[in-house]
């Protein structure tokens, strides 16, 4: 599996990072986790074939994770190829309906033969010949009257059997760090690096049964010269750690 961190910033774009979006490619298909702006433009600059995007998994409905989805839908529909279809998984009830209204206001019709919407619920939500995806509830929006509305995603590549966990955003006290990471082995952890103190998270990171950690959704303090400080705080973790940049590529 090839992983491209398209956008790696926190809630705002910065001088060196755009909003959150990560591309996972395996076989002849690709998948997005989050679709922060300018996701479609970053895919274009990387020379990616949008028609291969089978599914988009949104971790939560904050703008920096979903703000680029209208442009993504427009491009998917504007240049279709035979057999193309993209399933979009949104984690809040009413989100698909609201998005459809906004697309209509921009004169972008939703073509069901090309685009489908599904509500994220805990457990397995997607499976094809390449991957299976399980939604793992988190608590990044703890005051939401309806729960859960924020999710991590566990992606299993079927050909290799390798598994990764993409956390999405977590709460400031780190109480919703997926406990499964300390019980089960993962080949890769892709974790946000903005909303909690590294001193709070470090004990759980040290217990995590992963072969590698990639930080994304990276806060201002870790940009530029701060990156070396972030990695220094992780020097005693029992696996290698990387801080992702826009356009970085990794192999699972």
What can you see in these coordinates?
By secondary structure, the protein is α/β, with parallel strands linked by helices. It has a single domain, classed as Ribonuclease Z/Hydroxyacylglutathione hydrolase-like (Metallo-beta-lactamase, Chain A, 4-Layer Sandwich), CATH 3.60.15.10. The chain has 6 helices and 14 strands. It has helices spanning 39-45, 63-66, 69-78, 95-105, 198-207, 226-233; strands at 2-7, 21-26, 29-33, 53-57, 86-90, 115-119, 123-127, 131-137, 151-157, 163-166, 188-193, 213-218, 241-243, 248-251. The strands form 2 sheets. It has a 7-stranded mixed β-sheet with strand order 6-5-4-3-2-1-14. Strands 7-8-9-10-11-12-13 form a 7-stranded mixed β-sheet, covered by helices on one side. A hairpin with a 2-residue loop joins strand 2 (21-26) and strand 3 (29-33). The radius of gyration is 17 Å and the shape is globular. The termini are close together. 40% of the residues are buried. The model has no long low-confidence stretch (mean pLDDT 97).
């Amino acid at each position: 599996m090839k992983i491209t961190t398209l956008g790696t910033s926190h809630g705002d774009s910065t001088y060196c990072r755009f909003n959150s979006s990560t591309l996972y490619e395996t076989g002849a298909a690709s998948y997005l986790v989050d679709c922060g702006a300018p996701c479609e433009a970053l895919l274009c600059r990387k020379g990616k074939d949008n028609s291969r995007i089978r599914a988009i998994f949104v971790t939560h409905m904050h703008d920096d994770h979903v703000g680029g989805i209208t442009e993504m839908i427009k491009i998917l529909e504007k240049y279709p190829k035979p057999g193309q279809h993209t399933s979009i998984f949104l984690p809040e009830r009413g989100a698909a309906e609201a998005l459809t209204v906004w697309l209509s206001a921009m004169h972008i019709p939703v073509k069901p033969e090309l685009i489908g919407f599904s509500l994220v619920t805990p457990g397995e939500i997607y499976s094809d010949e390449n991957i299976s995806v399980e939604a793992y509830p988190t608590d990044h929006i703890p005051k939401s009257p309806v729960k859960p509305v924020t999710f991590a995603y566990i992606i299993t590549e079927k050909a290799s059997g390798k598994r990764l966990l993409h956390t999405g955003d977590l709460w400031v006290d780190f109480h919703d760090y997926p406990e499964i990471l300390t019980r089960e082995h993962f080949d890769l952890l892709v974790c946000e690096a903005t909303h909690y103190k590294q001193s709070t998270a470090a004990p759980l990171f040290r217990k995590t049964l992963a072969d590698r950690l990639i930080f994304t959704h990276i806060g201002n303090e870790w940009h530029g010269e701060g990156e070396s400080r972030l990695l220094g705080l992780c020097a005693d973790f029992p696996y290698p750690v990387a801080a992702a940049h826009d356009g970085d590529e990794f192999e699972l």
